[in-house]
Each structure stands twice: as C-alpha cells, then as structure tokens.
Design goal:
CATH class: Mainly Beta
Number of domains: 1
CATH topology: Thrombin, subunit H
Number of strands: 9
CATH architecture: Beta Barrel
Largest sheet: 6 strands, antiparallel, barrel
Helix content: 10-25%
Distance between the termini: 50 Å
Structural class: mainly beta
Strand order of the largest sheet: 1-2-5-9-7-6
Shape: elongated
Order of helices and strands: HEEEEEEEEE
C-alpha cells in the first residue's frame, strides 16, 4: 500500500527527527501531576537562536515532541515541567503531522 504524502512525512518525522539515535533525546515532560518520558528535541542555549522562524531569547527553549506525549493542559500561559524544571508556555502549540512544537519561558 502506498502512503500518502502526509503519512510518509509523519513517519519520517517520527522515525528520523524524533529518533534517539538521530536528533532526539529522552526527556520528562508533565503538568506538575502527570509526567511522561519520551523522545523530544529541546533547543535553547540561553542565548539567542533561531528555530522555525522564532527568535529564542535568553531563558527560552523550544520543545518538539510527538503530539500524543504533550500534556493535556498545554495552552498559552500554562506551566509545564521538562526534566523537573518549570516553564511557562509562550505560544499556542500547534500539531503538525503528529508533532507539536512548544515555545517555553524558563521560570527559574
């Protein structure tokens, strides 16, 4: 069976971009009550950087992970925890091909 473009793109994202041996690393993400460990790409060095057209300022990171692993309450202004550190969601995360990108501001 031939996969559609969208199916193939979603598979490539999961099998390449979010693969631990490629770009992703295992991180813990949660809402303060419920947590999951999953592969994600976390970008942000504390210095300015550019990812997906968004300038990252000091204290900001971008987390990219499979949508199924995103905590239920993850809208703008909510608090999420990545690897035990508290962050405030700075955008309205959007699902693209089964992957969600979340802009986060450090709370520490």
């Amino acid at each position: 069976m031939i996969k559609s473009f969208h199916e193939q793109l979603a598979a490539d994202i999961k099998d390449t971009f979010l693969r631990e041996t490629e770009f992703a690393e295992i991180h813990s993400i949660g809402d303060g009550v419920n947590y999951v460990e999953c592969p994600m790409v976390v970008h942000g060095t504390g210095a300015s950087a550019l990812l997906s057209g968004v300038e990252l300022r000091a204290g900001h990171i971008v987390a990219v992970l499979e949508t199924k692993n995103v905590p239920e309450n993850h809208s703008y202004g909510c608090t999420l925890f990545i690897d035990g550190k508290s962050y405030t969601v700075e955008n309205e995360p959007m699902d693209s091909f089964g992957v969600t990108e979340i802009l986060l501001k450090s709370n520490y």
